Please model this.
Amino acid sequence: MSIGSGGAMQGVPRPGSPQGSQEVQGGQPSSKAAKVFLVGMPGTGKSSVAPLLAPRLGWGYVDSDAQIEKVSGLSIPGFFARHGEQAFRVQEARCIKWVSGLSDPLIVAVGGGAVLDLENRILMKENGIIIWFRAALDTLVARLSSQVATRPLIGEGDIRSNLKNLEAVRAPLYQEIATLTIDVDDGDIDKVTDRVLRALGRVGKWQGASGR
Model:
């Protein structure tokens, strides 16, 4: 299977329970880790892997972009067009804060730009393991070239230049906070899911981390 696109916070539904390369050691996970945050550039497969990974662990999952769409009643491009990026980042931060405060063990597919906010980075580091889905620029261009209409920050101008500029800012932040790094260039989400499970099994006692 290949990678595609992929109190509670006010207005955000509580997640169901559960809903249905290389691995490089980075920073140490929080001692109270009960979340796995998937971070990375658009097109790395976070939203595709999360719903496969969650049932393997017996957990629920949350996709931050999907939660914002539920709250606002708008698609992500529609939200950007109506409210702009700054308002989107505010909603994104609220979602991460809400998720971080839940006692449920969760897989969280995080929007690619969430790491730009210092508080988001702190919350994720304090509340879970962070996995960076890393892909080469050529991989991202190939995956996203047909999706520019649904990707507000890369939809205008040259897609390669847009992605390169985003990556230049974001990649150091992904690297800074990542507990683990998983290379996802092969595009097989089943294999990526298996890599994540194996990697989790090496950093802690995670129920179901060896797969079922």
Notes: The longest strand covers residues 35-40.
